[in-house]
Design brief:
The protein is α/β, with parallel strands linked by helices. Helix content is about 30%, strand content about 20%.
């Protein structure tokens, strides 16, 4: 709880994955992704309840063993790879409130596929949401200038190269570029009314918490290997 507000942490972890089967049970640093996020939540004092939203019983069991609860199973209708975060979160909120007989003022989404987060990252996100009176707060990372939108190119069906944005033709030096940011999946915090009244995870007033350091969102085997390397490096430097 923070400032009298009850906080529900939701871990979305469906069983299906086109890139890696049962990706959420893959191990990094000797722990599954689901268990890893469960361990982080245990160290976030602002959270009052932590649940996993999954359609897979094996994931649910691992979640329970790591300190998360699984009071419901995610319906098939919202378990596909084209289902948005809003549908998953509003279902998790309503199902948990029905099971608990209480309302939650804040929902924080923690995707298992961003395993380099820390408990302090999550706490800072929740604190910024509540203390800043935002509808939602998303964690972001600074995008490398090499991947800036104005430096991106497109190919048409005939293999012709063009600028993604015509303004890119005028970019000569990186000093001309305004920094841009991308969501890193570390944490998304939002008010209950953002979900139930605005029907979105973003809201009309959204704040950004810039998180320093490398953060990898796992999509494939290469990402897992990269996370392992980063964890080994942190351990060697004594910062893990």
């Amino acid at each position: 709880m923070i400032e009298g507000k009850c906080v529900l942490a939701v871990v979305p972890a469906r069983g299906g994955s086109k890139g890696i089967p049962l990706k959420n049970l893959c191990e990094v640093g000797g722990r599954s992704l689901v268990a890893k996020v469960g361990g982080v939540i245990c160290d976030v004092p602002e959270t009052d309840r932590a649940v996993v939203s999954t359609d897979n019983e094996q994931i649910a069991q691992v979640a329970r063993e790591s300190g998360l609860d699984a009071p419901f199973m995610r319906p098939e209708a919202i378990s596909g790879d084209r289902i948005g975060d809003f549908d998953v979160l509003i279902h998790a909120l309503e199902a948990t409130e029905a099971a608990d007989g209480r309302y939650y003022d804040v929902v924080v989404m923690l995707q298992p596929t961003s395993p380099l987060r820390t408990a302090s990252d999550v706490s800072a996100t929740i604190q910024m949401l509540v203390n800043g009176d935002w509808d939602s707060v998303w964690t972001v990372s600074v995008t490398d200038m090499k991947a800036h939108p104005l430096k991106q190119l497109t190919l048409n069906g005939e293999g012709r190269l063009d600028y993604y944005d015509c303004r890119g033709a005028g970019i000569i030096a990186r000093q001309q570029l305004t920094p841009v940011y991308h969501r890193n999946g570390v944490a998304y915090a939002m008010t209950r009314s953002c979900l139930t009244e605005q029907h979105t995870i973003m809201g009309r007033k959204v704040g950004a918490l810039v998180v320093e350091g490398a953060h990898i969102s796992i999509d494939d085997e290469f990402d897992i290997a990269l996370v392992e390397w980063l964890l080994d490096r942190r351990a060697a430097e004594g910062t893990g």
